[in-house]
Each structure stands twice: as C-alpha cells, then as structure tokens.
C-alpha cells in the first residue's frame, strides 16, 4: 500500500468535532435513542444476572443437593434470559428507527446543499466523487447508526458492571484478569493511529473508484466509438486496485489488534482457571464463585473486543462524516442578494475580469459592454476565447473576479437568486432532460405550471403541434436523458422552459451548435419566436444566427476586440471579418 500522507489523518480533536456535529444533527431522534438505551440497560442487567444465578444454583442447589433451590435457580435463569431477549429485540427496533432517520436527514441535507452550489463547485469536484459521498460514505455509517451506537452503550455498561461484579465476587481473581490489560491499552493506542489513517484512505479510494466507474458508463458511446474499452478497463482496474490495497491495509490493521484482544482474553481465562482452582482448594472461594468469575471474564473481554471493533467502525464513519461535513461547510460562490431585479433594463458589463477557481490566468480581462433593453447581442470568437464564460457571467452562473454586471442598474450580486432566475434565463448548448414526461421537463422552469401553461409555452415557440402528434402528447415519457426524443426535440423542450419563465434577458449558449441543418431550421424558428423583443445575448458561430443580431461583440484572448453591426465589422476587415469568412466557407448561410 502507498504511504498515507500525514495531512490525510483525522486527528483526535477533529474526530471529536465531527462526532459532536453528528450528535447535534441527531437531536430530533433523542427520545428514540434514550428508549433504546433504556432497553439496552435492561438487557445488560439480564446478562449479568446469569452468572450470579449459576453461582447460586451450584453453591446452594447442586452442592448441597437441594432440589428446591436448584429449581428456583433454573426458573429464575429462564425468566432473566426471557426478559433480556425481549428487551434486546426492542433495543434494536428503537436504535434502527433513530439510525435510519438520521441517515435520511443527512442524505437530504447533503443533496440539498449540493443543489445550492454554483458551477464553480462542480468545476472543483468530480461528479463521481460527489456520488460516492452520497452513497458509499453515507452507507458506511449505516453500520454505526444501526447497531454500532447500541453496541457501544451495551459494551460500556457490560464492561463496567462486569468489573464491579467481579470485584464483589472475588477481588483476587479480578486482579489476575487485569494483568493483561496494559497490553490491550498499549495496542489500542497504536490501533487508533493506524486505523484512522487507513479508513480515510479507503474513503478517498472509494470516491476515485466510483468516479472512474461513472465515466466509463456515461461515456460508453465515445469509448466504443474509438475502441477504448481496453484502456477504460485498465483505468478502472488501476483505481480498483488502489481501493483493494486500501481495504487490505485496513484489514491488516484490524486483524492483528482483534487477535491480540482475543488472545489476551484466553490467557486471562487460563490464569483464572489455574488460580481459581487453587483458591477453591484453599477454601477462599466456592466452586460456584469460580465458575461465575469465568463466565463474567468472558463477558469482560467480549465488550473489550466489541469496543475495539466498534472503534474500527467509528473510524470509518468519522472519516465519511468528515467528507460529508466538508461539503456542508462549502459556501456557494454565488450568494443570494437582497434586491429584486427590475423587470427590464440594460445589461451593463463594466471592466469585468474573470479567472476560474484554482487557476492563475485570466479568462476575461477588462471587458465592458452595454446591451440595451430589447437588443440582441451576438458574442463570437475563437474556441477558448472566453465568449461562453462572458455569457455565463451575464447570467450570473459565476461572479466576476473583477468589475460588475448590472441589469436595470442593479448589480447581479446584490439581487436575490429567485428574481435573478426569473429575469435571466440560460438555454445551454444541449437541452438536458430528466426522467418523466415532456410536460414534467417543461415544468422544471416553474413547478406550479399547469398543463395549459405548458401547452402555452410550447405554442409560443411553435412546437406544440409537433409534440401533440405523439400518442400521449405532452405526457409522453422521454426516458433517461430524453433518449426517446431527437436532439432537436430535446432542445425545443429546453426552449419551452425559457418561454414558461418569460424572462427579461435570454442567454443562448450556442443553442443550435449540436443540431443538423434540417433540425436547426426548426429550432431557429422556435428561437426567433422566443427571442421576440427580449434582451438576448447569443453565443454563436453560425452566420445565420449572428447576422440577425443588432450588434456583435468579438472576444479574442479574453478581451473585447471589436463591437458593432455585421456590416460595420466586415468593413473593418479585422478579426470578425476573418471569422466570418472562415465560417462562410464551411457552413451554409
């Protein structure tokens, strides 16, 4: 296994902080947990009464041949065991109810927080790793919350009461049993250090493995198109091998420690048998007492081993919780403001500069543009020039590193997210569809929209007749990622979402770039209907789209190189003219 870096370790203070936060989150389940603890205490007392009743049966029933006393001991033992059995079932019911409730709450909070993050968050975090946090990391805590906490309480009570009862029965044999404790204490400290690092490494490798798996599934069409199956399999084998090594290392850490605890228990029992027999022969203890002590010793070392195993589980769960709390502690890059954006107004980009997180170079530098109310602005440029980034800033999918962007005189950073998404809508390059019907996917823009509202939005872009021809109309299931619809139909649904919102500003990020010419004509017609008199910012590379713009902004190497109408920029014979000539030679007008 590769060396585990020191910074990957979760120190004791950090682990305690994680557990305190988890306890605060679990506060709504306090009563259920207390009920489980109560039943756990009853079960523990029942287990401890067993050796005491055995001692009573041997010393007062079997040895003096008193059948009445023996029957009493047997009946008492059966009653105690029955009570312990019923109580143990109840404790599992209550603790699992609390545990599953906690996991449900955690899933909802983490997922909700992820949904609130801005695009910069997803630039920094792979989707596969986020899926691992929501699945593998949360599931790793199931063992802890379903039985681990219960086992901790049970083992702690059993260990404490067993020790007290041992002292009452025979302090001499108790001292003998404690001779092996220093070895267990020293081993526990080493186990704590090693297992902590091991389980953090396991969690990291789980995320990496799931990320590779997701890429292999979602990108299977590209993989097969280029016969990259062997390479993708090799990558998955490599990540899987890392996960395998992490698990093996954690297994080695656990195995030597658990074996040591078990061996210590055997040695303590052997010493108790030898010395206990000697004390019986001397008359210092009774036979029943010696047997009761042996039974209690098993219950003394069993909770020690359970606590050791539980610590193993706690380490894994704490590492997972630390990763999840890291997500919950992430502040969205795009924060909610307090002002409501006006229903109309000019979009003013003032000296805007931008760099993506964790990069040093500026993607945009000192860009200033004013888009008048109702104006259509086409943003063009070479690949990587920063035109799509500018469009995303104007829709406030990111906040500028420098400068400001305003709508109707209000800085977008000061606006509420709700009013911003009502006033400014982005239609991306590819219309993403969710599982459900066509109507469900249009309603993504407004959850309370009726079927009539959906039909009106589709009619506004001239697409209603197309979808009404389907056997189930707008209630047609689109299947996963809209696989039942063509690329053009998926984009029409995306445009209908924008029409349903009826925004003041429409941002089109190369909305027709993935379509064939025939389909493009249908979508272009829908776009024309949607744009109407709205303020529109179009990122485009098709002359048919660019020529219809009132003005054209040319972005080159992150700077505003040229700004004007199609004819004005052609007359300049500059960057736009060269781009237009290149496009005209390869694409239909």
Q: How would you portray this structure in words?
A:
Helix content is about 65%, strand content about 10%. The protein folds into 2 domains: about 15-330, Up-down Bundle (ABC transporter transmembrane region fold); about 345-585, Rossmann fold (3-Layer(aba) Sandwich). A 6-stranded mixed β-sheet has the order 6-7-8-3-9-10, with helices on both faces. Strands 2-1-4-5 form a 4-stranded antiparallel β-sheet, covered by helices on one side. The protein has helices at about 10-25, 30-60, 65-115, 120-125, 125-140, 140-170, 170-180, 180-220, 220-225, 230-280, 285-330, 385-395, 415-425, 440, 450-460, 465-470, 485-500, 515-530, 545, 565-570, 575-585, and strands spanning about 345-355, 365-370, 375-380, 400-405, 410, 425, 505-510, 535-540, 550-555, 560-565. It is α/β, with parallel strands linked by helices and about 600 residues long. The chain is built from 21 helices and 10 strands. A hairpin with a 2-residue loop joins β9 and β10.
């Amino acid at each position: 296994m590769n060396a585990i870096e020191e910074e990957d370790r979760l120190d004791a203070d950090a682990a305690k902080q994680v557990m305190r936060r988890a306890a605060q989150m679990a506060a709504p389940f306090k009563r259920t947990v207390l009920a489980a603890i109560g039943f756990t205490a009853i079960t523990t007392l029942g287990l401890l009464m067993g050796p005491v009743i055995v001692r009573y049966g041997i010393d007062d029933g079997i040895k003096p041949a008193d059948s009445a006393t023996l029957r009493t001991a047997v009946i008492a033992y059966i009653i105690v065991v029955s009570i312990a059995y019923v109580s143990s079932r109840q404790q599992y019911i209550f603790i699992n109810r609390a545990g599953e409730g906690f996991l449900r709450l955690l899933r909802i909070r983490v997922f909700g927080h992820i949904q609130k993050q801005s695009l910069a968050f997803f630039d920094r975090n792979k989707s596969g790793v986020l899926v691992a946090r929501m699945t593998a990391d949360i599931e790793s805590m199931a063992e802890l919350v379903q039985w681990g906490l219960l086992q901790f309480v049970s083992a702690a009570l059993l260990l404490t009461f067993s020790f007290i009862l041992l002292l009452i029965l025979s302090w001499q044999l108790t001292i003998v049993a404690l001779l092996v404790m220093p070895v267990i204490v020293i081993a526990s400290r080493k186990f704590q250090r090693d297992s902590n690092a091991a389980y953090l490494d396991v969690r990291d490798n789980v995320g990496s493995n799931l990320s590779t798996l997701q890429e292999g599934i979602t990108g299977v069409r590209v993989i097969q198109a280029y016969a990259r199956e062997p390479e993708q399999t090799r990558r998955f084998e490599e990540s899987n091998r890392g996960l395998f090594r992490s698990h093996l290392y954690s297994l080695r850490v656990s195995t030597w420690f658990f074996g040591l605890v078990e061996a210590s228990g055997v040695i303590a029992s052997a010493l108790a048998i030898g010395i206990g027999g000697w004390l019986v022969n001397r008359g210092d203890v009774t036979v029943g007492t010696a047997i009761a002590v042996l039974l209690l010793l098993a219950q003394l070392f069993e909770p020690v081993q359970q606590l050791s195993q539980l610590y193993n589980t706690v380490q894994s769960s704490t590492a997972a919780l630390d990763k999840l709390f890291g997500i919950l502690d992430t502040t969205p890059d795009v924060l909610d403001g307090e002002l409501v954006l006006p229903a109309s107004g000019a979009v003013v980009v003032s000296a805007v500069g931008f760099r993506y997180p964790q990069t040093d170079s500026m993607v945009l530098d000192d860009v200033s543009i004013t888009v008048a109310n109702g104006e259509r602005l086409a943003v063009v440029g070479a690949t990587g020039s920063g035109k799509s980034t500018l469009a995303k800033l104007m829709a406030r999918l990111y906040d500028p590193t420098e400068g400001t962007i305003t709508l109707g005189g209000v800085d977008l950073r000061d606006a509420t997210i709700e009013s911003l998404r009502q006033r400014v809508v982005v239609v991306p390059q590819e219309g993403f569809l969710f599982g459900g019907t066509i109507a469900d996917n249009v309603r993504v823009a407004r959850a309370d929209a009726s079927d009539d509202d959906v039909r009106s939005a589709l009619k506004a872009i001239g697409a209603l007749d197309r979808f009404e021809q389907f056997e189930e109309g707008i209630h047609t299931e689109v299947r996963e990622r809209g696989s039942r619809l063509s690329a053009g139909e998926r984009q029409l649904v995306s445009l209908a979402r924008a029409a349903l919102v009826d925004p003041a500003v429409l941002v089109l990020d190369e909305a027709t770039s993935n379509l064939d010419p025939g389909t493009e004509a249908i979508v272009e017609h829908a776009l024309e209907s949607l744009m109407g008199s709205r303020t529109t910012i179009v990122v485009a590379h098709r002359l048919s789209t660019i020529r219809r713009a009132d003005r054209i902004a040319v972005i080159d190497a992150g700077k505003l190189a040229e700004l004007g109408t199609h004819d004005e920029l052609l007359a300049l014979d500059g960057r736009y003219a060269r781009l237009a000539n290149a496009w005209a030679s390869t694409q239909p007008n």
